[in-house]
Specification:
Nucleotidyltransferase, domain 5, elongated, about 15% strand
């Protein structure tokens, strides 16, 4: 049988010995349960690196290679990303802002630089448009708005929510692409009222707003592409749950040292107070 399968006898007996030991080891059974639980709570979006970090946080000292083998044994797989529709329309004659962000995505304090963007979600009732505002310091989604129409009010409402939640001071930089909603009179007036500084990506350059693009990629890969929404209301509920219950409060971000945004902000505030 070993010759037929192309494996050595020693490898076969090592596998059998490990299988016999692991199948009755309570600790091993427990860690496999933890792997399945982490995979489920992350919407099957975590690879071996994040699974390993999540297990470490629970007190299981495993590396990435061990996490990978545990995922195989637990029959845990990662969902893959699909392409999504581009919503930016920069073919307008509205004034645009200078690119003040200039890809400086590392920010030392909260409420210094926000980034915003729009995406669309398909439902059986038609498109649902989502606008978000993200604080670059912690990658936390601090404002959002959803509507069946992609008008200036959509992005204004998302920024108003961020202002209501965070109370940022004048001088805050708010970066976006060159979409007509962000170049609208309503949006520019909103920035002026609060003393915020507008910033826009270069034409056709998605990397200038890559943090917002990355969030939408995570949202669609981890949640939306695996759903079939009968109504816009159902999609709204799902997106709200993803942002508030998972992305901001549970999802491990490699940029944050494998912490979630809420945890990162709390820890950084404690360090600041101690200092």
């Amino acid at each position: 049988m070993c010759r037929l399968m192309g494996v050595s006898r020693s490898a076969y007996y090592d596998y059998v010995r490990c299988a016999d030991n692991c199948s009755t080891d309570p600790c091993h059974i427990e860690i496999l349960g933890a792997v399945r639980e982490i995979a489920k709570s992350s919407h099957h979006s975590y690879g071996s690196r994040r699974i390993g970090k999540a297990l470490n946080a629970r007190g299981y000292p495993v590396g990435r290679r061990k996490a990978r083998s545990l995922m195989r044994e637990a029959d845990v797989q990662v969902r893959h990303r699909k392409k999504y529709k581009v919503t930016t329309n920069s073919n307008h004659k509205q004034p645009i802002f200078e690119n003040r962000l200039n890809r400086q995505f590392d920010v030392a304090a909260p409420n210094q630089i926000y980034v915003g963007d729009i995406t669309c979600i398909w439902t059986r009732e038609g498109w649902l448009y989502l606008a978000v505002v993200i604080d670059l310091f912690s990658r936390k989604v601090v404002g959002w708005s959803m509507s069946s129409r992609m008008k200036a009010k959509l992005v204004c409402d998302a920024l108003r929510m961020a202002v209501w939640q965070r109370q940022p001071q004048p001088g805050l930089i708010v970066h976006s692409d060159r979409g007509s909603q962000y170049a609208s009179k309503q949006y520019r007036q909103l920035l002026k009222i609060h003393g915020f500084i507008g910033s826009m990506s270069r034409r056709g350059n998605c990397w200038d707003n890559s943090v917002a693009e990355s969030f939408f990629g995570s949202l669609k890969r981890e949640q939306i592409h695996w759903q079939h929404y009968p109504t816009r209301h159902k999609a709204q509920q799902d997106v709200l749950q993803y942002i508030s219950m998972f992305y901001n409060s549970q999802r491990l971000h490699s940029y944050l040292g494998y912490k979630n945004p809420n945890q990162y902000e709390m820890e950084m505030e404690i360090v600041k107070n101690v200092a």
